[in-house]
């Protein structure tokens, strides 16, 4: 994987990283408002504006779970959980990128 700006943690996380920050800070507390925020960020930064139905369903479920956790935990507890969610998502997305790069490279042989 080449070292470039396009593979920074910020770039890999995309709207999800911003979502975690918004939930952690408490700037946006409503599920629908958070969905709107993420969709807007995605539309403004992605190559393809459309978000598939499956992705929307996963996003809604993830937001609902994050809000439940945030409301059930102390502020300090939530910050620790949010950090783990953040790096867990990053790891999975990074592995996905590596897998796709490997498949592409093998397909070029």
Give the SSE string: HHHHH
Low-confidence stretches: none
The first-to-last residue Cα distance is 18 Å
- pLDDT average, as an integer? 88
Q: Briefly note the structural class of the backbone.
A: mainly alpha
Number of domains: 1
Major β-sheet, in short?
Answer: none
**Cα shape:** globular
Kindly estimate the percentage of residues that lie in beta strands according to DSSP.
under 5%
Number of beta strands: 0
Helix coverage percent:
over 70%
Helix count equals 5
Q: What is the CA-based Rg, rounded?
A: 15 Å
Write the layout of secondary structure elements.
Blueprint: H1 9-13, H2 15-25, H3 31-45, H4 53-72, H5 75-107
Helix pairs in contact: 2-3, 2-4, 2-5, 4-5
Q: What does this 3D model show about the protein?
A:
With 109 residues, this protein is mostly helical. The protein has five helices and no strands. The chain has helices spanning 9-13, 15-25, 31-45, 53-72, 75-107.
Key descriptive features of the protein:
109 residues, mainly alpha
Brief overview:
Helices cover 77% and strands 0% of the residues. By secondary structure, it is mostly helical.
């Amino acid at each position: 994987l080449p070292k470039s700006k396009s593979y920074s943690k910020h770039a890999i996380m995309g709207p999800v990283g911003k979502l975690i920050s918004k939930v952690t800070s408490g700037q946006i507390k409503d599920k629908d408002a958070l969905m709107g925020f993420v969709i807007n960020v995605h539309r403004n930064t992605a190559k393809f504006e459309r978000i598939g139905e499956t992705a929307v369903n996963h996003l809604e479920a993830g937001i609902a779970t994050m809000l439940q956790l945030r409301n059930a935990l102390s502020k300090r507890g939530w910050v620790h959980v949010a950090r783990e969610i953040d790096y867990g998502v990053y790891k999975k997305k990074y592995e996905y990128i590596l897998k796709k790069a490997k498949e592409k490279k093998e397909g070029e042989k």
